[in-house]
Amino acid sequence: MLSVFSAPGHYVQGRDATAALGSELERLGISGPLLIVAGKSAFRLLAEKWDQSLTGAKIAYTVHRLDGECSRSEIARITAVAQEHGSAAILGAGGGKVIDAARAAAADLELPMISCPTTASSDAPCSALSVIYTDAGEFEQYKLVPRNPALVLVDTSAVVEAPARLLTSGMGDALATWFEARTCIAGHVRNMRGGASTRSAGALAELCYRTLLEDGVDALTAVETHTVTPALERIVEANTLLSGLGFESSGLAAAHAVHNGLTAAPETRPFLHGEKVAFGVLTQLVLEGAPAAEVSTVLAFCTSVGLPVTLADLGLGHADRETLAAIATRATAPGETIHNEPFEVTPPLLLDALRAADALGRA
Questions:
Q1: 64 part of the active site
Q2: Average pLDDT of the residues in 177-197
Q3: 3 pairs with which residues across the strands?
Q4: Which one of 155, 256, 313, 358 is the catalytic residue?
Q5: 171 and 147 in one domain?
Q6: Domain match, 324 and 184 both
Q7: For residue range 93-122, what is the model confidence (pLDDT) as tens digits?
Q8: 100, 215, 273, 358: which one is catalytic?
Q9: Closest CA to 358 of 299, 293, 294, 291
Q10: Catalytic hit among 100, 123, 259, 358
Q11: Which H or E run includes 244?
């Protein structure tokens, strides 16, 4: 099996980075027309800066607003708008679902994709993978596209204006990176691009975890006070770049499968991707029989930044056995990443792990 490492063409991060968008696109030879797929907050924060930067670079653009799910129907709408305007590239600006929808539409039209996250809420921006949901918000599938983004541009001035909960969610998503990567590496599992993990991918995944432990609390304080600090910059990089490279080039395991299972319970719909993934990390550690000291470290970190550690934290405090069994069944469906674990994971086994993880969190 060949080793495969995937990465975006170019990564730019920092205060007021949006001002460089036009020049970065020029450097890449992207002259427009450009379709910007934007979430509500992204449009509010960046519309004026887009106009200044893109007009200065003489790049024509159109904005399409997205406020719903990254679903097949929304991707089709984006595709139609891009075709109508003769777009030469598609830019996704906002949270993970906006970026995933823009990526999927760009892939369908074989166009370059630019990723401009306005939150550090997931590791979606750097990857060549979109998470597709139904219009009702239930996980449907992972969609792998041929190319990573041509450019990822992260404006930390916008990130600090987002709710602190979004940064916390990003840390929950990033928390899974090292634990899933080491499982896949040890098991010689194919990564998200169909190859073996490189040592570089594993090292980046581990660095992601260390950065969370060292800077997570301070970065959360920075967002709560709307200040761009070195700790904030490091956590944005961890949530976005390190986690994105680590998961795609090493692989996923139980933590993300548990997230997918949790989406089958309507009670979890108000909760964010990374919040559900964080509880998936605890469940994975229980499944794998991780050392108590490691579990304690993860629990302490989650508690320090406000990530869920119990089923009640995800709206499932009164869930009956039937509901939990449905979650376990969905998480262990054929093709799920939980089957990258080095042993067979059945619904009853996962159900017990969910309940044990919940008990640890309550304790």
A1: no
A2: 95
A3: 196
A4: 256
A5: no
A6: yes
A7: 998 889 999 999 999 999 999 999 999 998
A8: 273
A9: 299
A10: 259
A11: helix 243-250
d(CA 239, CA 172): 9
Whether 72 and 103 map to the same domain: the answer is yes
Same-domain pairing of 70 and 148: yes
pLDDT digits (tens, 9 = 90+) for 227-277: 999 999 999 999 999 999 999 999 999 999 999 999 999 999 999 999 999
Return the CATH number at 72.
3.40.50.1970
CA 240, 246, 248, 250: dihedral to nearest 10 degrees? -170
- Confirm whether 259 is a catalytic residue: yes
Question: Which one of the listed residues 173, 215, 313, 358 is annotated catalytic?
Answer: 173
Q: What is the pLDDT of residues 59-72, one digit of tens each?
A: 999 999 987 788 88
Question: Does the annotation mark 10 as catalytic?
Answer: no
- Host domain of residue 315: 164-362
Residues 154 and 195 both lie in one domain:
no
Active site residue 188: no
With a CB cutoff of 8 Å and minimum separation 6, the contacts of 291 are none
